[in-house]
Amino acid sequence: MPDLTPDLTGAVVVPGFGLAAAQAHHALRALDAAYGDTWVHLVHPLAGRYPGHLDLLLDLAGVPWERRVGPEHDLRGATVLAVGANDVLTWLELSPERLVAVTDGGPSFDGTQAPVLGDPRTTLLRGDAGEVLRKLQPTTP
Questions:
Q1: Is residue 141 part of a domain?
Q2: Which domain holds residue 120?
Q3: pLDDT digits (tens, 9 = 90+) for 63-96
Q4: Which residues does the annotation mark as catalytic?
Q5: Number of structural domains in the chain
Q6: Tell me, what CATH number does 44's domain have?
Q7: Residue 14 included in any domain
Q8: Full-model pTM
Q9: What's the chain look like in SS3?
Q10: Which domain of life is it from (predicted)?
Q11: Does residue 19 fall inside a structural domain?
């Protein structure tokens, strides 16, 4: 797995149903804390299996509301960490500077593949969201 430590500081996190399915919300929060709580979490209101599903999981993991933004958030110049969010990625209109996508590699729930996943600025990290997030924990020298 590539060393992503310097690239995720200040990232915009886009969680999706894959985060919920892997029960990886606590692993996401731990990784956020390891980066000094510099992340904002872009939560689409319909992400997950029902409206508010991802907000509920982020609440359980202890992600503060003031660090959550909606789909109108400007992604230009941002590094985006998408976790199990293939469906959500299809509506990303503004291209991020860099996308790191944690995915199982399959199509989204609606059967489509997000075009941004084929972008050369995208790094795909395949596997279970919880396992991948734990592997991304920065190591102390």
A1: no
A2: 8-135
A3: 999 999 998 888 888 888 889 887 777 666 556 6
A4: 87
A5: 1
A6: 3.40.50.1220
A7: yes
A8: 0.85
A9: CCCCHHHHCCCEEEECHHHHHCCCHHHHHHHHHHCCCCCEEECCCCCCCCCCHHHHHHHHHCCCHHHEECCCCCCECCEEEEECCHHHHCCCCCCECEEEEEECCCCCCCCCCCHHHHCCCEEEEECCHHHHHHHCCCCCC
A10: Bacteria
A11: yes
